[in-house]
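Request: Mind sharing a record?
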Amino acid sequence: MQAFLQRHQLDVIGVLSGFDRLLFRGTLRSISYAEGLDRFLGAMKLMYKDFAAFAQDCSARLKDHAQAMAQKADRPFLYLSNSSQSKEQLARDIAARDHIEQGLVCVLRCVEPCMSFSIRKREGAFRFVAEERKCLHLYFYSMDREFGLMHVRLATWLPFGIQVCLNGREYLARRMRQAGIGFEQRDNCFVRIDDLPRAQAMMDQLIHRKWQRLLNAWANRVNPLPKAMKLFGYYWSIRESEVATDVMFKDAAALERLYPSLVDHAIKRFGSSDILRFLSRRVIASRFDKEVSSSLLDRGEGIRVKHRAEENSIKMYNKQGSVLRIETTINNVRRFRVRRLTTWKKVHRMRWVPMRFGLADLVRRVQISRAANERYLQALACVDVPAPVATLLDPLATRVIKEGRPYRALRPISPDEAKVFQVVLDGRFLLRGFTNRDLRHALWPKHKSKPDEPLQSRRQSGKTTRLLRLLRAHGLIRKVSTTRYYRVTDRGQKTMSASLILRSADLTKIAA
């Protein structure tokens, strides 16, 4: 990311990274599966024939409780016949109309799909079966003192699933207003913040917040049944998280000049391997057989580029004219790994294992999302170089001397050099870099099929070593300390990308 910021330092006024939307999910784990619900009914001394009446009574109690909350606060209790209607916009309109600054805004009701249980006959016996059904959901929209407009969504049918949706930008706006920090907010982003380091520190506090107590308080407010039935409280997980990195430009004109080139580069240059690397995924064909896609959507407020790998995605927006937003959305954290203490073969040790949906791995989730955003910006650092190509390529065409040893000039437009540049810039080497062997196998693929030719192998290895020294002498790559890996420098990213683009440029357009 630093290369991108340095490249556009005259136009960028600051960067803010943190949560955009955060969706928590609460589960009553003791009754969230068929066997658990069966045991619960046994403890309640209820028969299967009484289950429907019991569940309907629970639903009626929840609806009565919600209606009582709305009446006590003198707020609307509305039924929506169309579940696709924007509930958030309706709540915002009600809050603006009634000048609600804190407290309950409204309670909305609508029928939506949910996962619940039905009694079915299986193998000669009746038992509970998990099925997708429809039930009434209650939306409690509130103007919270810390988070602004937020909502709690409660299913009124067993097992009473609950969701809490918050917005990190609204939280930051309220914190900065209390601290007296000047800012300009448009919609869901900031185009100016007077004290960015303090604002970033405030945003980072959400990562380490003790969420369990806060979420339980919201859940107990809208659902009194678990405590009345002596059930364990909700287990909280993160259903969806959006971590956005906003690059604030000094004005809309500066971003408008750059953004078309960013969009063109993202759509045309970022392949499947690049997208997987952005999202910390290993590019191994035998281990990844799912779809990776990129899409472009021209909306009223701007153009959105979206790259998706299975359930997770990374997006680029131009928000409110002057804000470039890179946003990573994680729906399935099992695609990523976290290092934690585990028991393996009766031995306690630290291992890399799949991440959990629970609150325990929230910090790691944010780390992965921020790193993805930074890698994406780093890959865009080579776009729209503000200088003639000659200023980049001419230094390569001269002989250099490093540590008393001469190195020949490069020929950046020649087919041989272009092939090397293309291999070095491959997206699969973006994270960990590349080795002599990686470069050798990419340049001479026949070598892998003839391991019985040691002389040829030594010659190609020596030739690759000399090639690596040549690229290092010209400042295009650097060696990672104490390892065998090499990485492309910022100068190398710009220079080699420019030479490849120049080779593939349309002659008719250049001549015109």
User: Anything to note?
Assistant: The chain has a mean pLDDT of 89. The chain has 17 helices and 19 strands. The radius of gyration is 28 Å.
